[in-house]
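Worked example 2:
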Amino acid sequence: MNINLLFSILGLFGGLLCCCGDVLLDLKGSDNQKLGTSKQLDSNWLKMSEWRFGTSILLAFVGVPCVGLGLYSLHFQMLDSNKVLAIVMLCFAFLGCTGGFFIHTFLCLQAIIVKRIVQNSKDFRTEEEKLQSADNVLEGMYKAILFPFFFFYLCLMASTVCVQIGILGGALVVPKWMVILNPIPLMIVGISLRKINPKCFCDLPGIIMPSFGLAMQGLIGIIAVVL
């Protein structure tokens, strides 16, 4: 089998695994409330089974490296037509995938931390006091990881922007409409649906859109090889 085709298939598979991990982490229900200083504490974490967060980390553990292989395939496919773009894309992809697992793991761990603080704290009488204590812990964590969190995320998104440029510039021989199969446009769609109907689209499809966009990078690679 063509190595680029194999890596692209793994990229598609890895992105879909990440979608499943996003569902386990973020499917909270329409009654969920954003709490805390930075509004990053979700009230329904307390109702969610802890196994979901651990399983979500394991899915990302497999999925993110596979996504990286999919992007690696796109690098090779663009290399002959646009060497500079291909190298820039690979650099962003390497940094983004390096941090991708870190980002997802942090998001899962914060839910576990909040649950454990609220469930096991004996120093506070009310649930409000327990949530305030959990919020204080999360705020300290945010300050510690804020820069690498956004840096790695932006690198991952930048790698897919390079793919869009490759499609529009002809470095990747796929239909031009596939430029929309990207985490950024798909994320905009998800956010727009939430704005239009927050109750109906409070969770899906918005929560999986970035990962689904990464999966589509694998599909783009498959189509490019086949064509």
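The mean pLDDT is 92. Residues 129 and 163 are 48 Å apart (CA to CA).
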